[in-house]
Give the backbone structure.
Amino acid sequence: MSGERVFIIAGKRSAVAPRSGVFASLTYYDLAAQVVIDALKEAKLDKLEVDELIVSNALGAGGNPARMVSLEAKLNLSVGGISIDRQCCGGLDAISIGADLIKSGRAEVVVAGGVESYSTRPVRLHPENSEKPLVAYDRPAFAPVGFNDPNLDEATAKLARKFGISKKEQDDWSINSHLKALKSAEILKYEITPILNQTHDLFTRELNQKICERAPKLSDTITYANSSIAADAAGFVVLVSEHFLKNKMCKGVEVLGSATSGVLPEEAPLAPVGAINALLDQKEISLSKVAFIELMEAYAAQAILCTRLCDLDLDKVNIRGGALSRVHPIGASGAILAVRLFNELIKTPRATGIAAIAAAGGIGSAMVLKS
């Protein structure tokens, strides 16, 4: 039935572990499959009821990660899986694509999200030219020749200088992110799929100014203490049509809409601003009516910029900590924002929430959900 309203009826994620940590022995598809299975269990759905699986993955180097996850999770063999790579935005965009599949009438049940195993990422090689041997590289180009394509640490540091964001402001934001996550640890564990007995995010700690002062510098005011490091994790939601929801008589959170935006690659941290504004205009939503905002914290400076430029209420932003306290599993980060938002809204009747994230290359994505 085309034009259907779309609802999330379950959202689960793994704990987030820094690379080469507790999840280092797990493949991305094993990590993802366990979360997919748990999300379906939470939704009280049989695996064979899933029509499609959409998976964001940035480092798996092809091979259709979604099909790998589908097979590992033992979904119906007819579920071919759709893999996308929109870098950090991918997990949120996978959910948006899943919602569109349902709205078009092509599916009634879609599992969507993202996974990243930084620990087991393949080594990538490319030729400098046809006459030279292959050279290993870790960071791909995010813009073609002719564009400024800086390291994101440098790009964020430049924007922090431009907008007058001090190192202390960034450190304070990071300290607060960890503090909120620590205080919410027992609440957060209910959205976490226990994998290798891990039920809490493994990087969250009692951060303080002394630790921040000792943290190695990445670029100018950007340090390891006020930026989010690479990690392993997965996050998925179960999307269903309104027709399916009514037949199952279950609770859900509606996907009201989503938006993307682009900026110059060197201004990537600003990209969520355009996406959030486009979403608010598209849905005619007032920020004063938004109860929860899950904003990606790839860098404290990036989060501070977005809150300032969008005039966000700090009391509503990342109320249980953000990615600075969880860390950053690239292709899964946007999905984890959606899982977080869903788990706040499902407990709060008639509330609205926004998730937003930036990605390398100068893109931003945002989504609005309503209970």
Remarks:
- The mean pLDDT is 95.
